[in-house]
Structures are given as C-alpha cells and as structure tokens.
Amino acid sequence: GLALGYIGSFLTQLAAGIARTPWWQLLVAIAVIMLIISGPSCFIAWSKLRKRNLGPVLNANGWAVNSKVFVNILFGGKLTSVARYPKLNISDPYARKTPAWKKWLGWIVFVAIVLAVVWFIFCDRIYVFF
Asked: Which ranges does the record mark as transmembrane (predicted)?
C-alpha cells in the first residue's frame, strides 16, 4: 500500500513538472535524451567507418559478413551512385479491358450531370433568351 502511494506521488509530481516546463525546454530535453542514448553507438560507427571497414557495421545490421570489407574508391563509388531504372511500360497488355458500353455510359452520365447542374444554376436566365 505504501509503495503504491509513493509511486503514484512520483508520477503526479513528474506530470506536474512536465506540465510546468516550456515547450522548447521539452524539445531540448528529448533531444538530449536521444543524444545520450544514441551518441555512443554513433561514435563507434563513426570510428569503424573511419577505418574504411564495413565488416563490423554489416555484422551489426544482421549481415553475416565475417571478413574485412574495406571501402576503396571503386566500391565507394558503387555504394554512392544512383541506380538507373529501366523505362517502364505503363500500359499492361494483359490487363482486363473495360467494355466500350461502360465507357459510353460513364460519359453520358457525366454529361447529364453537368447539364443538370447548369440547368438548375442558370434556370431563370435561360428563359430570358427564349
């Protein structure tokens, strides 16, 4: 019972403290926490890449590379170049064709709706001309 009271008191004090801090200080606090958590791993990755060896980085990402993978100029160029994709054919020759009567019906319904809207908007002005 007493421990639950202390935990509840701590949580309410924490919520009140967070509510009192300005919004920009909350953003700074979140950035500092992220830097504390990910800073050491970023430094280790930087030092590994500084040796131009991708083996430990690839192992950390789940690739089973058990040798030293040195990055030379050719390999680095291959890793950083943007691949060119082949031109794609947009029309699919095996796609199902829609029947022509559905296309015509769609256009007729569209024109009828446009004419109905024009008729109801300009109904009083049309009689003036006739």
From this structure: 23-46, 104-122
Greater confidence (111 vs 124) lies with 111
DSSP code of residue 88: P
Quote the CA–CA distance of 58 and 71 in Å, as a whole number. Answer: 13
* CA nearest neighbour of 69 among 61, 77, 59: 59
Rounded Cα gap, residues 113 and 121, in angstroms? 12
pLDDT the model gives residue 98: 82
Q: Whose structure tokens read 């509840």? A: 8
Residue 67 contacts residue 56 (beta carbons within 8 Å): no
State which amino acid sits at residue 36. I
